[in-house]
Amino acid sequence: MVFSKTLTHWYSNNKRDFPWRKTKNPYYIWLSEIILQQTQVKQGLPYYEVFIRTYPTVFDLANASESEILKLWQGLGYYSRARNLHTTAKYIVNKFNGEFPSTYDDLLKLKGVGDYTASAIASICFNENTAVVDGNVYRVLARYFGIETPINSTKGTKEFKKLAQELIDKKNPAEFNQAIMEFGATQCKPKNPDCAACPFNNSCIALQKNMIDKLPVKQKTIKLRKRYFNFLVFISENGNTVLEKRKTKGIWQNLYQFPLIESNKSLNYKELKDIVNAHHVLNGNCFNLFLYNEDDIIHKLSHQHLYTKFWIVEVKTLHENSININDVKDFAVPVLIDNFLKSFNF
User: Which residues form the HhH-GPD domain (predicted)?
Assistant: First the structure.
């Protein structure tokens, strides 16, 4: 098909040089795809390189502790990816002796691996004719073919997958899949694409109908949830503080944070002091309370915004489970906490 040939020809002349494009090792491809989920290449590449150096094989990753992996993952967000990465590595080592499944259907059974990732690994590593469909692919297909079906609808998911499957170069599925993803990432960009230099500018329906900015279509998502976080940064006279592990499911599971008071609104000094006074960490001891940031720090996640204050709580002593302030850097923490640590300069 003309579309596929034009696309792969463009790719041969314009593809970027990435380390995962120089291998067909499924471990490396899997690792790169998991890291690049919800993450731009410029942010994900350094993490990929560090993971490869630290865990050169799936056996090394499987033998690591979850806390070590979460610490290395720190700053990438969507930490369930890191936990799934570890779970899957152990599964592949224990069940398959380190050998990755070689088909789309079997790859799809791995934790954290969905349609897109299974298609990418199956096509790139094992030459299976299964098309990838990610955000870049949705955008390219929606614009070129003028498709207005919402990409985040059940109908849209099926329609775009079927179309991508019809277009794939059956002689070289790996090249086609990488080409269409690269084209969406660098040429058919979300905003201000260079349509004048596009090899499809004579046949792109969105360009002909002046719909570039309107495609692809997405259904309205759920309403953002507002949450109010108050982190208590306890500091004792001998330089100790307190960290707690988030054990509940949801954001930041198994990461560490300062003791948290969540409220239904932004709290002022008096409101917070009354709560701190009864906090179990203090055990009735006297304390001095200072607000670190006057304005809420707004930390934006996919479906919620966290309005955050950091409160410094100075105390004479802390309980035996406290840690030295200098050791805080060794714990895996959310980026929100990490940014505070850097600015507070522990």
Answer: 35-186
CATH architecture label of 225-344: Alpha-Beta Complex (3.90)
Q: Using one digit for the tens of pLDDT, what is the confidence trace for 15-33?
A: 999 999 999 999 999 999 9
Give me the active site residues, please: 33
What are the structural domain ranges in the chain?
Answer: 2-214, 225-344
What secondary structure letter does DSSP report for 327?
A: G
Task: Give the dihedral sign, CA 281/284/287/289.
Answer: positive
Answer CATH for 2-214 from 3.60.15.10, 1.10.3720.10, 1.25.40.10, 1.10.340.30: 1.10.340.30
Give the tens place of pLDDT for each residue, 93-135: 999 999 999 999 999 999 999 999 999 999 999 999 999 999 9
pTM of the model: 0.83
Q: What is the torsion angle, in degrees rounded to the nearest 10, for the CA atoms of residue 105, residue 109, residue 113 and residue 115?
A: 30
- Beta-carbon neighbour count of residue 143 at 10 Å? 26
